[in-house]
Design a protein that fits this description.
This protein is mainly alpha-helical. It has 2 helices and no strands. Bound molecules: zinc ion (ZN).
Length: about 110
């Protein structure tokens, strides 16, 4: 659903020369954040209206995620790389298979 930026993305990092300003990149990111905020709110409304969840539950879950790194700071902790379950070497977060032994790795859609 939320594909990472690629070479065609307006927010991808590449050497575009002097025509691409930092302000334009920030404006694009702000627009993208606003769009994601709307998607998140729409998903929340669906959960609230169709499944009867309340705001308290949402706030509890947000707080729990925030506190997973032991700090209540409005930020999500990055997760350290995990070892391969087959060979024990460190896995790359961006690859669906172990680089060393080829073991397929189940992807966590919320991995950071
Ligand atoms: Zn492996």
């Amino acid at each position: 659903m939320f594909a990472p930026p690629n070479d065609h993305s307006p927010v991808s990092r590449r050497a575009d020369g002097p025509s691409r300003s930092g302000e334009a990149a920030v404006a694009e990111l702000q627009h993208e954040v606003e769009r994601l905020r709307m998607v998140t709110e729409a998903l929340w409304r669906i959960l609230r209206e169709k499944h009867g969840l309340d705001e308290q539950e949402l706030v509890r879950q947000i707080t729990a995620i925030d506190l997973e790194d032991g700090k209540f700071d409005g930020r999500v902790a990055t997760q350290p790389p995990k070892p391969c379950p087959k060979c024990g070497r460190t896995l790359s977060k961006s690859r669906p298979r172990c680089l060393f032994c080829g073991e397929p790795i189940a992807q966590d859609p919320f991995q950071r």
